[in-house]
Amino acid sequence: MRKKEPLGPGESALSVATKKEWLAIILLIVVFSVSLTFVYDLWHTAACSMSLLEGHFRDFYEEAATRNGTIVYYPTIYFLFAIWNLIPSLLGLKWSEIITSNVLFYEKCLGYFFLVIACVAIYKIAVHLYGNQKRARAVILILLTIPYFFLISFPWGIYDPVYIAFVMWGIYFLLVKSDLKFTAFGLLCLALAVSCKTFVFFMILPVLFYRFKKIWQLILAGGTTVSVMGIECIIFRNSQTFQETVLKPMDHFVATIFAFNFIGISFLIVILILTCIWLYRIECNPENFSRFIWGSFLVTSSFIGMSLWNPGWPIMLMPYFALLTVGLPQKDRKLVYLLNMCFAIFAINAVVTTRTPYFGESAFVKSLLGGWLLKSEDLKYGFSLSAEIVEALFTSRIFKSDYNNYCSTAMFALLAHNVWFLNPWRVEKLQEEPTELLLNQDEKKTMYACLLVPLVIYMAPIIAWVTTRI
Q1: DSSP collapsed to 3 states, 154-199
Q2: pLDDT confidence of 66, banded at 50, 70, 90?
Q3: Is residue 377 part of a domain?
Q4: pLDDT digit string (tens) for 283-320?
Q5: Do residues 314 and 158 make contact, with C-beta atoms less than 8 angstroms apart?
């Protein structure tokens, strides 16, 4: 952690970007949010949540599966969607009967809501890390302009920000506040994150080993982080559907851990153990906070890069990535922006052009703007095809000889480079730049250009398709 840096003469906390720049970013977010929507997970999860609102609790999985097909998540995310859909339900709207672009946009707003909550936590963590509001706002600006993060969060509207918000607030309560009351809040946030997505447990292990220095504390904290998931397993233990669609696929989770190995030794497990031991041995204090951020970035990158590939997972990295990028000199940050652009282009090719049409033209058809322009309000959706798509997403591995996986391999290589490029020992050797040079106009031009290029590449074929149908 750097020494606290007061704002310079005439500077404001907003000085990392002008009001016009912030407004332009907000406008871009709005345009892409209403123009595209990724449907399957969003619609399926929201539709399943309606079973809870209709009184199906103990038989929730059987009822939801009967209506909407296979459901694979623990109950937490469905409860959150049920709360979100409480008002529409009271108004007599039944999501499982009809899909409209208006409905899908409303469901996307749950992710936007949690994204705002996550950004507040990231901002507070950045203030603790860098010592002033200017650098903290620079972190948020960089995060929002990472092309991959932008695509996942706004146009596609996937609800990964839900568990990211829980993780970030868990870190803030445990490491920034850290007294007993906030420690309990922090562990609860991490427990909710794990119950949303099981693999998030990898993200939080560095937090626990850095924060707790006694074995009994680690055991207690670790048990607490899986407590919500454990309670849900007990409640639904008699549900055959829950056992088959949620618990049984844990085999896939185990396979993910050992997907990248040498003579049976998982590289991921080795990196996880070594990183946790290192974080356990260093003192939990402000001076080592950047090391903790990098350790979490290393473990999460390793899990994503060395496991069965899923196009949504890299979003977990982005808060750590933005926090670390601000600490780089300007010339290094420019290189990072260019690499982010390349990462997003490879991701677009891997996801859109070779995996599923639901990230392309169909994403526009089911958007708020698409429903209005194409007059397709009753957008029926087939789950059988989607099931095949989801299966394809989870069975593809890195280093297979096809175009899709060449893109994934390139993404993996960029992750590996960023882990080295952002390591604290390298960064500390670099001469620290004056505060007033942070995100000057030349650098921001590079940052904005690197955001727009992937967006144009993504939208060009969609716009060409749409113009032939209006």
Answers
A1: CCCCCCCHHHHHHHHHHHHHHHHHCCHHHHHHHHHHHHHHHHHCCC
A2: confident
A3: yes
A4: 999 889 999 999 999 998 888 877 655 667 788 999 99
A5: no
Which amino acid would we find at residue 309? W
Q: At what angle do helices 40-53 and 75-84 cross, to 10 degrees?
A: 80
Sign for the CA dihedral angle at 444, 450, 453, 459 comes to negative
Q: How far is CA 418 from CA 57, 74, 324, 363, in A?
A: 45, 32, 10, 31
- The answer to the question of residue 405 being in a domain is yes
Q: Report d(CA 303, CA 311) in Å as an integer.
A: 13
- Coil, strand, or helix at residue 401? coil
Query: What region does 444 belong to: left with phi over 0, alpha with psi -120 to 50, or beta?
Result: alpha
Report d(CA 424, CA 327) in Å as an integer: 9
Q: How many domains does the chain have?
A: 1
**Mean pLDDT along residues 391-402:** 40
Task: Phi first, then psi: give them for residue 154, nearest 5 degrees.
Answer: -105, -65
Contact 303, 205 (CB under 8 A): no
The answer to whether 128 and 286 are in contact (CB under 8 A) is: yes
